[in-house]
Design a protein that fits this description.
Blueprint: E1 2-4, H1 15-18, H2 30-47, E2 52-57, H3 60-69, E3 82-86, H4 90-101, E4 109-112, H5 115-124, E5 129-132, H6 140-145, H7 158-161, H8 163-177, H9 183-189, E6 192-198, H10 204-213, E7 217-218, H11 226-233, E8 238-247, E9 250-263, E10 266-274, H12 283-297, E11 302-307, H13 319-322, E12 326-328, E13 337-342, E14 354-356
Parallel strand pairs: 1-2, 1-4, 2-3, 4-5, 6-14, 10-11
Antiparallel strand pairs: 6-8, 7-10, 8-9, 9-10, 11-13, 12-13
């Protein structure tokens, strides 16, 4: 994530003093042209899946006027997943942005023109990388370009391209939640829908990316490349399906993956993962129910699961047992827990209204 100041960072000047017509970010002015190029670079980052946020000591109304009426602006208000525009200390606002977007502080770059603000962030949240807008403003675009290696911009999926929109839709969901006192009523109001893709129809690049990035709802945290998953798809011993989730606010994209090893009417869950941004909707339970139905249709009689505890996946430690799987004591490998379920004995029901197609 890149968190940006506004005055003298997105444009030349201070909107509260110079007014909307006094700030510069247009190509008809030498200085403004440099800020225009800077905005083009930030827009490039955004289009490649890098989240942008705004952290400015300003009046919200004046910042809104700039985005709404300054025609020279390359960036729009909707290019930012969060805007903390107030008079609070910037280190506090950066922490607020990180919490609201679920982005780690060590994954944030903060850009500002003020030595005071940058030093405050360095001393209080040192995990955040700080970049100063150069005094020689002609160097600004090159400073921004030096950030390219920090972000993986080479392999971009549809979910990466739509990441900002996904976060904006999530903000709408959070606003909607305020109208409900019962979480199940809220989830049912979302009109959740799962779209399942199987084997050769799964989005291969995205599924490989999910295995590389997903840590929280991930039982084995096994990492796979596209070619490795492709080999599984080409083998009769493996069964793979991915899950795409949507609701009334929009499409979350491909956010779930299950990889099964099949043998002699038995199935082993090699990988079962969900993106953290869809947790809390009981989708994992519905997906497990779907898994059982799929295995029944394939004539599978018993299902086995493995759980490898890690620093980040403790939330799934009791999920298999909750679904009715029996814990099998493991003595040879203390870092792994094994589970077993006779398919015909599965009885768990999820009453949340989630459509599957």
């Amino acid at each position: 994530m890149i968190i940006l100041d506004a005055d003298n960072t997105l444009w030349k000047g201070v909107v509260g003093e110079d007014g909307i017509n006094g700030i510069k970010c247009g190509v008809d002015d030498m200085t403004g042209k440099i800020y225009n190029e800077a905005q083009l670079l930030f827009k490039y980052f955004k289009n490649k899946g890098v989240l942008l946020a705004l952290c400015s000591k300003n009046n919200k109304e004046e910042i809104k006027l700039v985005f709404d009426n300054k025609k020279e602006m390359v960036l729009s208000s909707n290019d930012f997943v969060n805007k903390e525009v107030n008079w609070l200390p910037k280190n506090q606002n950066i922490i607020n942005i990180a919490e609201k977007t679920n982005v780690g502080l060590d994954s944030i770059v903060f850009i500002d023109d003020s030595d005071f603000e940058l030093e405050l962030v360095k001393k209080t949240i040192p995990k955040v990388m700080t970049i100063k807008v150069p005094t020689n403003i002609s160097e600004y675009p090159d400073v921004i370009k030096q950030l390219f290696p920090l972000f993986n911009l080479s392999s971009i999926t549809n979910e990466d391209r739509a990441k900002t929109q996904l976060y904006l839709e999530e903000n709408e969901r959070k606003d909607s939640l305020k109208n409900f006192s019962d979480i199940e009523d809220y989830i049912n109001s979302l009109s959740l829908e799962l779209t399942i893709s199987r084997n050769e129809k799964i989005p291969l690049e995205r599924c490989a990316q999910l295995t590389q990035k997903t840590n929280q709802f991930n039982f084995t945290t096994k990492r796979y490349t596209e070619s490795q998953i492709k080999k599984m798809i080409d083998s009769i011993d493996w069964y793979i399906f991915s899950m795409e989730l949507s609701d009334k606010f929009g499409n979350y994209g491909t956010t779930g993956l299950v990889i099964l090893k099949l043998k002699n009417k038995k199935a082993l869950i090699n990988t079962f993962l969900l993106s953290c941004r869809i947790l809390g909707r009981k989708v994992e339970e519905k997906l497990f129910q779907f898994l059982i139905e799929e295995l029944k249709n394939k004539g599978v009689e018993s299902l086995y699961g493995e759980y490898y505890p890690s620093k980040k996946n403790s939330q799934v430690s009791d999920f298999y047992e909750k679904m009715g799987m029996k814990y099998i004591k493991e003595t040879s490998n203390l870092s792994k827990k094994n589970y077993e379920l006779l398919i015909d004995n599965f009885s768990f029901k999820n009453n949340i209204n989630i459509k599957i197609k």
